[in-house]
Amino acid sequence: MSESNRTAVVTGASRGFGRGISAELVASGDRVVGVARDEQALRELRAELGERFVPLAADATEDTVAEKVIREYRPELLVLNAGARPPLAPVHEQSWETFGRNWETDTKQAFVWIGAALRAPLPPGSAVIAMSSGAALNGSPLSGGYAGAKATIRFLRTYAADESQRAGLGIRFVALLPRLTPATGLGADAVAGYAAREGIDVDAYVAGMGPVLTPDQVGKAVVELAGDPDSAAEYLVSGAGLRQIG
């Protein structure tokens, strides 16, 4: 294991992709400040990962949380992964409140932390990896505003990269777009919903998806991108690996 002595912050660290990302960053030698609202899950992850994982129970969508964490820990890597589980229903069965749920969590936390990273600013050579979704490319008809919320994260990354360049900050902004997978709670719900929509069982639906993406693979992709100063703007990650798309 290489000892990078880097400090990373991961939002939505307590479950799913955030948990896998935190584990891979700790394994690569980073100190990880894991932000999530589930204090018990964070404690369990601390017990699993050890002292390099610093649990912080907080709401990642709050401006004051982002500003305080950046000021206190001076991270060189931000992984903006926090998000809400989207409601599974076709558009005509949704309310505006359910349709906008992911805008108020996924997009808002990306907006809050990206703004704080630019204002602080993070040290030159730092990286911000914003978690979008493969749904941002192809839509997600059972998930309300989820696809649009994730697509806006891609735009936020673009805007932030431009501002970093204009101000000579030397902060790198990357978007990572994971494909749908049954390997997380959110993904398993979505897979079941789409299988039912097509009138097939879950196993048949999963078999048609190709190699299943795991949280560990997403974590390894984050480690790879964080360590590559020449990494490009956007990447799709699936069970087949990492692919540059922009």
Question: Which secondary structure elements does this structure contain, and how are they paired or packed?
Answer:
Elements: E1 7-11, H1 16-27, E2 31-36, H2 39-49, E3 53-57, H3 63-73, E4 77-80, H4 96-99, H5 101-119, E5 127-131, H6 135-138, H7 146-167, E6 172-178, H8 185-198, H9 202-207, H10 215-226, E7 234-238, E8 241-244
Parallel strand pairs: 1-2, 1-4, 2-3, 4-5, 5-6, 6-7
Antiparallel strand pairs: 7-8
Helix pairs in contact: 1-10, 3-5, 5-7
Describe the structure.
There is one protein chain. By secondary structure, the chain is an alpha/beta fold. The relative contact order is 0.14. A hairpin with a 2-residue loop joins β7 and β8. It is built from ten helices and eight strands. Strands 3-2-1-4-5-6-7-8 form an eight-stranded mixed beta sheet, sandwiched between helices. It is globular, with a radius of gyration of 17 Å. Helices cover 47% and strands 17% of the residues. The model has no long low-confidence stretch (mean pLDDT 96). It has helices at 16-27, 39-49, 63-73, 96-99, 101-119, 135-138, 146-167, 185-198, 202-207, 215-226; strands at residues 7-11, 31-36, 53-57, 77-80, 127-131, 172-178, 234-238, 241-244. α1 (16-27) crosses α10 (215-226), α3 runs parallel beside α5 and α5 (101-119) packs parallel to α7 (146-167).
